[in-house]
């Protein structure tokens, strides 16, 4: 509960900052994430990780200087992966298909927005970094052992040991319409690892698409 209260206070303070005169644009955006994890190990069997679709939503603030701008965003980001694994038991094999692990992250994006020219509709490039903090997770990799009926969550103890904070790059390409509405695609490769041990290394990889609106331009 205390962690949730701190997050809410942080979001409110960020929003209030956006209304100050030093900010040219402030608004909200939301969209879909498309993420997975890369596992690399010589000792344990690596799961066949696949990309999964998630949700993300941010509040944003931007300061412009000619063709360049500084943009910061804070909000919620859902990462994770889908896995299919085959577990071998004495009386046969059990196959888990299309089960997901979902990571709920608080994320902060910051970087440089580059606008080569401005018309009613214009493209832009965003280059920056993303820091995300895992506040919780949901592991749907549950299987039932044949015979005993005991249920297990696969990789649960390993996920509990994930680094809570990770840092990565952020590359975005967008289209702005009259500085009111914008559409953006992005790529977020991680620099740091969720697990960085001698026997196992795990790293996030994430794409995203989002639609945003600059509130102060919209209400004029």
Would you write up a description of this structure?
The protein is mostly beta strands. The protein has a single domain (2-218), classed as Porin. 12% of the residues lie in helices and 65% in strands. The protein has 3 helices and 12 strands; from the N terminus they run αββββββββαββββα. The protein has helices spanning 2-18, 156-160, 215-218; strands at residues 25-41, 48-50, 52-65, 68-89, 92-114, 121-139, 142-144, 151-153, 165-177, 181-189, 195-196, 200-214. The strands form 2 sheets. It has an 8-stranded antiparallel beta barrel. Strand 4 (68-89) and strand 5 (92-114) form a beta hairpin. The mean pLDDT is 85.
Short description:
By secondary structure, the chain is mainly β. 12% of the residues lie in helices and 65% in strands.
């Amino acid at each position: 509960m205390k962690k949730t209260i701190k997050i809410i206070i942080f979001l409110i303070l960020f929003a209030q900052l956006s209304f100050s005169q030093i900010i040219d644009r402030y608004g909200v955006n939301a969209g879909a994430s498309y993420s997975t994890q890369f596992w690399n190990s010589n000792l344990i069997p690596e799961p066949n990780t696949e990309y999964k679709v998630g949700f993300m939503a941010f509040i944003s603030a931007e300061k412009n200087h000619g063709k360049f701008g500084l943009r910061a965003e804070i909000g919620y980001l859902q990462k994770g992966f889908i896995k299919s694994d085959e577990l071998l038991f004495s009386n046969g094999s059990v196959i888990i298909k299309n089960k997901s692990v979902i990571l709920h992250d608080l994320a902060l994006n910051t970087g440089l927005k580059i606008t080569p020219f401005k018309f009613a509709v214009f493209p832009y490039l965003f280059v920056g970094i993303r820091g995300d903090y895992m506040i919780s997770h949901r592991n749907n990799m549950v299987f039932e052992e044949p015979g005993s009926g005991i249920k297990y969550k696969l990789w649960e103890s390993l996920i509990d040991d994930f680094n809570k904070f990770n840092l990565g790059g952020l590359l975005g390409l967008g289209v702005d319409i009259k500085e009111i509405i914008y559409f953006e695609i992005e790529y977020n490769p991680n620099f740091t690892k969720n697990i960085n041990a001698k026997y196992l290394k795990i790293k996030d990889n994430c794409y995203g698409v989002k639609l945003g609106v600059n509130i102060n331009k919209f209400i004029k």
